[in-house]
Design a protein that fits this description.
By secondary structure, the chain is mostly helical. Among the domains are: 65 residues, no CATH class; 32 residues, no CATH class. The chain has six helices and two strands, in the order H-E-E-H-H-H-H-H. Strands 1-2 form a two-stranded antiparallel ribbon. A hairpin with a 2-residue loop joins strand 1 and strand 2. The protein starts with 44 loop residues before the first helix and ends with a helix.
């Protein structure tokens, strides 16, 4: 069967000269992958979203047209719709968005938020300071403590 003359051409048996070579794709004229502006092919949905979000688009507002990046335009439209809406859920969502972005100014952390930020080293330092200050809280004279030692 190694001799090309002995090879029978027919159904599901293409001629040897037109068969795929080892390591060759079945689609020799495959669609070329389209490179994006930065020359990289997006690999994940998050990369595609970030790539699209960086683009600037034109938006018509009334009689005027202006350019803006997509995230800014989306937030602006969302907040405008929330303002003109009588929907309490939409207004609450807008307030939550603004609050999370600290748009009302920086607020002090709550006790729970502060505790969640503490590291083990911070807690050890606090315990040391508490130990040093304990005699003052008990109305004891710290100098008498040192005299006993």
């Amino acid at each position: 069967m190694d001799d090309p003359e002995d090879y029978e051409v027919g159904y599901k048996k293409p001629p040897k000269h037109s068969q795929f070579k080892p390591g060759e794709s079945g689609r020799s004229r495959a669609r070329k992958q389209i490179l994006q502006g930065d020359g990289k092919i997006p690999r994940t949905l998050n990369e595609v979203v970030r790539q699209v979000a960086r683009k600037t688009v034109r938006v018509k507002e009334g009689d005027s047209v202006r350019d803006g990046d997509i995230p800014t335009l989306i937030v602006e439209r969302f907040l405008k719709n929330a303002l003109s809406s009588n929907n309490p859920r939409m207004i609450k969502a807008a307030l939550d968005l603004l609050s999370d972005a600290e748009a009302f100014g920086e607020r002090p952390m709550t006790h729970d938020e502060l505790v969640r930020t503490l590291t083990r080293e911070d807690i050890n330092e606090i315990d040391e300071i508490r130990g040093l200050l304990a005699p003052y809280y008990n109305c004891e004279d710290p100098s008498s403590d040192e005299a006993d030692k």
